[in-house]
Inverse folding.
């Protein structure tokens, strides 16, 4: 997949060589010779990847990386640090500055392209999530990702390694960094085990023979539950072609033996951070979606949800012959509560009533806030006597216990309700609501704080039409 | 990227050969020897790709393909038809049955793997969208994609070809299929032109020298506005390595010259269908998200939107010193409307009042339904005299013209309003609402159908605290 790549290096010659390599592979190349220019280009052009030299006069690569990763707008752009020497301290500093990967000069072309492809692929997945985030923002959601959950916290790590000595070593290192580590010493059933106990990161160690490690990586990537789990591959320097194959299969990162303790710690942290960031974007998105069907004040379903589901619920009950009862609840004199005690008090009353209501209906009943101070509960498989009893219990629970208000005072409210039963399979949701509404009106009319049963449904036959 | 691939062929030997090839590339392989088994596996295992033999006894490949594409659950799984002969009729039949691509036996391995990689990549993008769709469904949205827009309709196509004869030929073919075709005879500025006038499909013709066509494809893929535009590459059989490079760069499909008229028509249709399907998923998703911040009945912003934005609006107005007025509107005796004329009438009244309100405020005012029959309008940069005049105009518009009800009758309603002006920069949104609410209460108290100005804000100084 093509991509835009920003090369940052103070040495013009280095930039030229790298740019030529990437251009020959049809990448779109941008260049910068110092940190401030790089940051400016990142912010303006939003490239898919940054190849960043560590040693630059003025602002060094670590600082550039830190700033890219600090901004919520650019944090998802992968940064690869390019070091002149295989300096382990530089690597770890870079990973701690938030770099996604490391390459050592002179660059090995095959490895360079394999890493670039892998990071660009990852970026594309994130792009879709950031696009959603932008959509949410444009629509008016308050999108302010809380990054505290992304950092820190112990992660669950599964290490798969046929050598017990090696795996114990890795386990020790990762446990010292606070992770919960499980070791599997066989590749057999490893995929199944991992799917059954989804970790935050899988570390797969290549052994000296056989293609089991790559098969495992491939299986984790191709099966649904493990598709998103970050995989870190460990191999020998002579294993390079297999490491590259691994990156092509969708492995997220790889480390060459001898494994440096700080490096593997930093790389595992990078994977955990990336996974949690993605999970956070996903959960924000689900939360925003669910708001569309939830009443913000009470947490009950909202009218929109009810309107798109009640027809189906009523129809299923009618077709199945299991019956259904519907309860329509309205708080008594609620307007007075708002006018006398203010909106904050009114809101609290609605919240408390909703809670008492929820506590008295079953999980498969559908409870929704229908309007201002009106609630509806649809109760499948429930005869009217039961529905009446439930409604009356809710009425008692509301009337009996005063509601504590935000200002410390208390308020007693009452409610009226109408209950109607679906008997004729042909009755629609709207007709059922109408009957419950009439019963509710009677309850109000008869003095409030009571439940009234609706008259049975009368089918509009041709005779009725004639009269 | 690894993936699960289902191979369907009645010849056990063919399945074996293909399975061995794919397994050696670490793909996860499933197999079936007849149509019904294939459909059963597709439905149960949801593979990433189906390689489907055309000629099978019983249910043939076309029928299997049609059924996979007909089900909303499996329609996004790419299907590649494998034909024994280079039979053009089979290709076209297959593409018409909804196949995503075609390969001819004996399979050329390089081309096979390039196509498979490209289709798997496309599938992954769709996976994310289908996952969103599933999330929506789980949350309770009514997800019933309307596929009519996905099929049919003329598409915008841009053809880039340095040869006028060739491009005129392609233009003719595509215009006869009902598309709007634009021809560009130069690759220079083509990317810019395409980005400025986004088509549904870009057809890029490779010429005999230079890498301009692939550079163009790469640029379209790496730049934001054109990233999702389907690209169809046309090349000579000897160009195979370039066609494969194109697929790697993110081109969606390629055709080998001589271009068969029906084949290019079918392939363009396939790309258009895929693009529209993706757009449909995206627009459903945006619609669902926007519901979370919109009042379903009136289309105004809802209380949730107001609560997450009003603080910011008030703070910006205070900090900027431009002032702001807030209008709180409440319909008079609305409860009676519901009780006397029914909920449908009440809803219609709210809708009509919201419309009259919207018509009398400016685009940068924020109008929201605050509760049952209450509305709020925040008017930045507006002194209270103007806000009062606007509120009074809305009041007149509501009271003057009777509201037509669903049953054909008419109803006249009135409203009361309180307006408050932000003067002290320290005042919060809640305090501002409270003052408007008090003014509204006065309007009600003084006989309704009127607008009242709120008392100015008095800062709680230490003196006040002392008294």
């Amino acid at each position: 997949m093509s991509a835009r790549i920003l090369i940052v290096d103070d040495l013009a010659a280095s930039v030229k060589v790298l740019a030529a390599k990437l251009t020959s592979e049809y990448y779109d190349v941008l260049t910068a010779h110092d940190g401030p220019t790089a940051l400016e280009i990142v912010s303006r052009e939003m490239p898919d990847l940054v190849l960043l030299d560590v040693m630059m006069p003025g602002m060094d690569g670590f600082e550039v990386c830190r700033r890219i990763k600090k901004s919520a707008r650019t944090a998802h752009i992968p940064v690869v640090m390019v070091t002149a020497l295989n300096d382990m301290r530089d690597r770890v500093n870079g990973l701690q500055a938030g770099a996604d990967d490391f390459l050592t000069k002179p660059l090995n072309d095959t490895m360079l392209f394999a890493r670039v492809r892998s990071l660009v692929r990852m970026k594309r997945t994130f792009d879709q999530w950031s696009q959603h985030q932008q959509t949410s923002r444009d629509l008016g959601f308050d999108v302010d990702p809380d990054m505290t959950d992304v950092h820190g916290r112990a992660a669950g790590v599964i290490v798969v390694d046929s050598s017990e000595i090696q795996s114990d070593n890795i386990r020790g290192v990762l446990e010292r960094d606070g992770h919960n580590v499980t070791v599997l010493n066989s590749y057999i059933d490893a995929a199944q085990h991992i799917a059954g106990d989804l970790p935050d990161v899988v570390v797969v160690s290549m052994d000296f023979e056989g293609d089991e490690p790559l098969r495992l990586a491939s299986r984790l990537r191709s099966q649904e539950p493990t598709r998103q789990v970050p995989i870190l591959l460990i191999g020998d320097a002579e294993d390079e072609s297999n490491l590259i194959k691994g990156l092509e299969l969708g492995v997220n990162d790889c480390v060459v033996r001898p494994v440096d303790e700080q490096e593997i710690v930093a790389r595992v942290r990078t994977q955990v951070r990336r996974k949690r960031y993605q999970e956070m974007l996903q959960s924000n998105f689900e939360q925003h979606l669910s708001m569309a069907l939830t009443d913000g004040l009470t947490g009950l379903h909202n009218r929109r949800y009810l309107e798109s589901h009640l027809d189906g619920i009523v129809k299923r009950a009618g077709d199945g012959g299991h019956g259904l009862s519907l309860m329509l609840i309205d708080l008594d004199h609620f307007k007075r509560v708002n006018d006398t005690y203010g909106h904050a008090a009114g809101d609290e009353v609605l919240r408390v009533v909703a809670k008492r209501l929820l506590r008295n209906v079953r999980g498969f009943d559908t409870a929704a806030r229908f309007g201002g101070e009106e609630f509806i509960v649809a109760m499948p498989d429930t005869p009217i006597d039961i529905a009446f009893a439930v409604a009356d219990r809710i009425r008692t629970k509301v009337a009996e216990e005063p509601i504590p208000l935000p200002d410390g005072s208390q308020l007693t409210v009452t409610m009226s309700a109408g209950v109607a039963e679906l008997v004729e399979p042909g009755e629609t949701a709207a007709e059922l609501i109408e009957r419950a509404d009439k019963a509710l009106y009677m309850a109000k009319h008869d003095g409030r704080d009571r439940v009234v049963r609706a008259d049975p449904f009368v089918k509009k036959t041709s005779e009725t039409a004639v009269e």
In short: Chain A has three domains: 1-120, 145-283, 303-453. The two ends of chain A are 74 Å apart (CA to CA). The first helix of chain A runs from residue 12 to 24. Chain A touches chain B through 64 residues (CB under 8 Å).
